[in-house]
């Protein structure tokens, strides 16, 4: 039984197999509409969500299965013994997807569960977003060994994106002036650097040198500078203002993208005027929406693999 958290647990063949299966299902959804007949998915949300909620629930339905959703605050996980509650859930369903605030919760679920558990985003990894990103890049470039430049905070999205890009033979450039709280240490990035395909750019890089990198890569990727849970939280306002002030020189704007055909990705929700300007959003919105839609398709490939153990459909 496999879980989905860090891609270190997956081989290159498995990752490519999941992505190619996702593409196959996407291209002929009707042919695979009964693949998970009778199967059940439990989704549990401690964090807010649009894309994760819709993509997993609609995706499971499109495969013929059913999903059952619960908010963390409405569950007995808030008051009971977590391992026994997880084991109980596993007696009722074939897979669990949890969107949690802390990686410790994700690991506790995976340690206790008798069915596959998918990390739907915690403070360390966001594997389903990275699968969707890679599926989109593969669709648009025709190859897996892509070049990606990420500009923003080191966070869960960044960690998973770095893992999948380097694992599939691509090159990952990171311009990350600060890190958000997460469950990895420096050894995680040292291992990425050891691949020879992970390059951290200096925070002092000039605009001209950065534009050269932009022109050379397939995709420029950004994410919110402030965790979505705190963006409108008045208690977080001072820290939010400090982060925005520090990050504004690294905003993805029209000047940075001028003269290139490089794609722009954003995992949404977008905050125009902060990590990205409105004109760049407008120019690349269809690509960003393709990326967001591919959450559903990539997750279908993952669900089929975890529940059936097969990729050759």
From TrEMBL:
Cited InterPro entries: Asp/Orn_carbamoyltranf_P-bd, Asp/Orn_carbamoylTrfase, Asp/Orn_carbamoylTrfase_sf, Asp_carbamoyltransf_Asp/Orn-bd, Orn/put_carbamltrans
Domain of life according to the entry: Bacteria
Aspartate/ornithine carbamoyltransferase Asp/Orn-binding domain: residues covered: 145-306
The entry's keywords: Transferase
Pfam families: OTCace (PF00185), OTCace_N (PF02729)
Domain (Aspartate/ornithine carbamoyltransferase carbamoyl-P binding): residue spans on this chain: 2-139
Keyword Transferase: yes
Family named by the database record: Belongs to the aspartate/ornithine carbamoyltransferase superfamily.
Full protein name: Ornithine carbamoyltransferase
Organism of provenance: Megasphaera hominis
């Amino acid at each position: 039984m496999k879980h989905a958290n860090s891609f270190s647990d997956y081989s290159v063949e498995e990752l490519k197999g999941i992505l190619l299966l996702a593409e196959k299902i996407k291209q002929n959804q009707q042919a695979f509409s009964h693949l998970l007949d009778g199967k059940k998915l439990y989704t549990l949300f401690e964090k807010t969500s649009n894309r994760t909620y819709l993509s997993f629930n609609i995706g499971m339905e499109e495969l013929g299965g059913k999903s059952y959703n619960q908010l963390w605050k409405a569950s007995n996980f808030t008051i009971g013994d977590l391992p026994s509650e997880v084991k109980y859930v596993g007696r009722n369903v074939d897979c669990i997807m949890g969107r949690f605030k802390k990686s410790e919760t994700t690991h506790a679920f995976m340690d206790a569960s008798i069915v596959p558990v998918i990390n739907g985003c915690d403070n360390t990894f966001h594997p389903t977003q990275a699968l969707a990103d890679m599926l989109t890049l593969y669709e648009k470039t025709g190859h897996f060994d892509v070049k990606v430049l990420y500009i923003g905070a080191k966070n869960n999205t960044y960690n998973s994106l770095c893992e999948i890009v380097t694992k599939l033979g691509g090159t990952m450039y990171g311009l990350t002036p600060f890190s958000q709280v997460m469950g990895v240490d420096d050894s995680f990035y040292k291992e990425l650097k050891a691949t020879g395909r992970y390059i951290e750019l200096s925070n002092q890089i000039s605009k001209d040198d950065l534009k050269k990198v932009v022109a050379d890569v397939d995709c420029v990727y950004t994410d919110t500078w402030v965790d979505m849970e705190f963006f409108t939280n008045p208690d977080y306002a001072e820290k939010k203002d400090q982060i925005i002030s520090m990050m504004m020189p690294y905003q993805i704007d029209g000047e940075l993208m001028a003269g290139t055909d490089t794609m722009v990705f954003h995992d949404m929700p977008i905050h125009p005027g902060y990590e990205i300007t409105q004109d760049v959003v407008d120019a690349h919105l269809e690509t960003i929406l393709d990326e967001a839609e591919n959450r559903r398709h990539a997750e279908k490939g993952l669900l089929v693999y975890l529940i059936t153990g097969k990729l050759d459909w």
